[in-house]
User: Fold these one by one.
Assistant:
Number 1:
Amino acid sequence: MDLHELHRLFAYAWAALFVVLMVAAVFISIGTTLLRARAARNWPKARGTIIRSELVPETNFDDPDAPQILTYPVVEYAYEVDGRKYQSRQLSIVVGATPGPAPADLIALYPSGATVPVSYNPANHADGALDCRVPAKVARFMVKTVVVILAVGLAGIFIFTPAGSMLREAMSQLWRH
């Protein structure tokens, strides 16, 4: 094996390692999210009160020539566990995600002053949520991410490895006949 072939083999190994690590990271992230959601279904519940529920405008400057004003739902609630008071804005068990409804519908679902059940983590009472399901849009995003990473990984294998060059050669033979 000459130095050029060794260098190429080393590059393939790094590319394969990168793909494997990316897929593993995505699967670990998805698995952690799903395990958290599953555990949260059994969390105890406390009675909470919505103390703030409004649409907050925010200017999006992605296009400096045409800034957009977007509205985001802000729902804040208070609850009490073992005599200690907590406040949170966490709607979904998936951190950073909002449940499925549109922002205005979400505000209507959780109006100020409403009494709501709050699920809280028995190991950390400050970790509460109003909805313990994985939002459908998050689940769809997870599936799409896995599909894209696997597709890119497989494409990379077939484009940049000897197996890929054999496949390209076989396909060119088919096209010639």
Number 2:
Amino acid sequence: MQTGDAIPELKVTPDKYLTVRYAGASGDFNPIHIDEDFARQVGLPGRILHGLWTMAQVARAQTDAGGGPYSLRRLQVQFRGMGLPEREVTVTGTVTELRDGVAVVHAVAEQDGRAIIRNAAAEIAPDGRRPARGRARRASRPGRFLQSGVVLTPRQELILRKVVEVHTATGLPVASKTLAGDPEIDCGPSTIRNELSMLEEQGLLAHPHTSAGRVPTDAGHRFYVDRLLVGRDLVPAGRALELQLVRREVDEAMRVTTETLSQVTNLLAIVSAPPIDTATVRHVEVLSLQPQVLMVVVITSTGGVTKKVFTFERPVDQGLSAWAGEYLNERLEGVSLGARTLHSRLADPSLGLTERSFLERLTPAFTELAATAEDTLYVDGAARLLSEHRIQDLTEINVLMGFLERRVALLHVLSEALGRRDVLVRIGHENEAPALHSLALVASGYGLPSRHLGTVSLIGPVRMDYGAAIRTVREAARQLSRFIEDVYE
């Protein structure tokens, strides 16, 4: 970057439901953001965007220009106007000066030619990376598992386990004095300090400040998960997980699972639903709305209901529509929505021309169902994750919120768990997505004995209670699999 350079322009159009989703993620349920009538009653043109969301777009433009989320060192903005959903927001910026390799950028966010954020000042360190915490912290390549093959003595393993557990509980560096007071550790402070130094040399602990205690690194947490949790009781520290899934439809079961996971763990829970093409047709209704208008209702084996309306040039014979309903149920009941046989079942050469032509008009009610369906994600607990100062860096919050809005990126992250027989744990920089580099992911597939259909996952701080998270995800996947087996049998 050079003085006078323009950063890449960022254009983003918030959809009409963004303010509702962001209210849930941020905890800001002010009705001016989610209630159209209320917003107009108080003199606004309609629901307005959250200021922090708009600020996040300014931050996103800076991190895109800098090459990563940790390139943004500082950001301040001045809110100038109100932003509205369904209208494009444009962020532009210019480098005004360079200070020791750090670019100072003046930026503005506009909508419909109006500035909604002005006088934004950002400091960007191009290709910036997350600062290392502690002199012995070892860098890891994003998306690669850290090695936990370090050989430790039993005493070192005990001390590392204690550091991880105390740091998880308090969020503070753990001093040798604290460990010396633990009845399980039978050595003095000087020996403990020496062992802490050895663990730091191994890259398992870091020393944030000279006078402070130690904190686990990503590698330290990986060693803890792989080596120190083996054989230990992984019962969650909170309530036992009981998913009330009996006699529920699939979409409601997904929602209940997500909400329960988040409530039990106080983490962000994400559940991916089974693909629509794994469902089968349970029942079809062909309903006459008007003489020339029909509606085809398709009920799937998972409880999903879709409706498609067809308009004809002339009135439809009632006997023909009634025959179509009976015929479609006879031909399609139990057929997979993603099966190639769906087309052949509908194309029956033994039928008369009138019947074949009529069925051809109704075919899109079935063929377009799987083609246009999108994989569904259920997310709950973003507000819990952001509470209690679990994520303190504004840049990290903005990056995470943006990531949660990108469905395809989320599905890619979760897809890795589909091919695993047990729980997947990704810690810090092991995650490929930059938005998750300061977080940990615990995920497991669920579904049928022959294959997984979806994933259950938790996202939280690297210092999460891994024992509880692993046990909870594993149990949720087991209960959800049992529910899915009943639905698909």
Number 3:
Amino acid sequence: MSVSQIKIRTAGFARAGLAVMYRVEADWRAGYDPFDDGGFHPATLEGLHAQEYPVVKVTPKGKWIEVYGERKFILNASHKRFACETVELALASFKARKKRQISILSNQLRRAQGELDRLEKYLGQVPNPTTQPESLEELS
């Protein structure tokens, strides 16, 4: 995806001569249709956008940006940043975040599948785990 395909949500900070930083996020459309009998549908990816954040202070170690009324510090030497100086860097950061998310979720899926497999193996060894005994005499 090229930078020209990214929507930039701007509040006019760059046009006003202020320094800005960018963070790329995905635009998802909720999967709810109130006029459909089923109601819910899978969410759909609408595209990507780069949110613009104004730099409010620069220090030798980093920059302070304003994120929805609160200040957030971005360390210059950090590889993992909330926001980046350019849209291109923000795209690379978004890609790294999504790769890490996939890695974490893949590991969680693998663990859950292993636990389910172990449970099914265990239940296969139990004579009939779904039926309950009628009385205590049946247990002996």
